[in-house]
Write a structure and sequence with these properties.
Low-confidence stretches: none
Radius of gyration: 24 Å
Distance between the termini: 73 Å
Number of strands: 10
CATH class of the largest domain: Alpha Beta
Bound molecules: iron/sulfur cluster
Shape: globular
Largest sheet: 6 strands, parallel
CATH architecture of the largest domain: 3-Layer(aba) Sandwich
Mean pLDDT: 84
Number of helices: 14
Strand content: 5-15%
Order of helices and strands: HHHHHHEEHHHEHEEEEHEHEHEH
Amino acid sequence: MITATEFRSLFHNGLVKQNTGLVQLLGLCPLLAISNNVINALSLGLATVLVMAASSGAVSGVRHFVPNEIRIPVFVLIIAALVTVIDLAINAFVHPLYLVLGIFIPLITTNCIVPLRGEQTYLDRFFTTGMTGYPGATHIPDRQPGQQKDFSALIAKAKTCQPPKELETGTITGGFNYRTVLGIADQVVEAVKSGAIKKFVVMAGCDGRMPKRKYFSEVAEKLPSDAVILTAGCAKYRYIKLPLGDINGIPRVLDAGQCNDSYSLAVIALKLKEAFGLDDVNKLPLAFDIAWYEQKAVAVLLALLYLGFKNIRLGPTLPGFLSPNVAKVIIDTFGLQPITDADADVAAIMA
Ligand code: SF4
């Protein structure tokens, strides 16, 4: 039987000390995104507290009945169900607030750390660094001037873990950061001028489990052999192991790295514009076919629009922030368009 002191301690820890919404605001994208006035911030904070309190109670109630192997998906399902209830309730009872909070209510489910309350079996393998943190997790300290960050604790822990099971085989060629690509700029420009490369297709973005995302594998397969794919982010795992070959030694998939490296793709495009002496990036033999997901892709898309890139294709879903008015402005101004099917889009891209 729990004592009054233990209950008070649990209550205090759950609601205040380990309440991510209160003490680790920087880790929660939704809070950052809508904390532009007190009402919005308090409302989303309250929604987060409700979800945490209810999900911790529900998880505690079922944890003895859930098999160990599926506990994380079950717990995430509980959190997602509660978030959906909150989402629908706000929509039904406080509709003006729902219009402000929008996509950020569902994001409570995922962004950025699902608190480990009620189930802390992997806390010993949980590491944070930089401005992130989590109670009980090992924090990798900041780099000292002139030194590298010390990841030895993480490496030592990883060495004690079971290796992951191999699910598939293949070869991935990476490392095409803008510095590497610009290092072979002469070769690339020559290949474009000679007609060996007809089109660059930026097929970056996020991946997801929806079958519709097979579209990106199909586009990669159907693009003609004189097209080069520029990529960054998780979308590439749909096609990066395909044997697409190279053009005069230049791989047909140039992988700049992770989503944050989309910066490299923009630099490559801007440098190609200079190399060809063009006054507009949209005159380059370059097309965008972006795999959309509501994550960092939001920042990437806005950066591309800011840089003046037009006629970007997006899919398989469209951004949640595209309300009819915003969609009209972006379509009219930037020619943003949804993906259709691989055959039609490849034909339009290569036209
Ligand atoms: S935000 Fe980055 S890491 Fe996350 S799914 Fe998208 S590409 Fe992958």
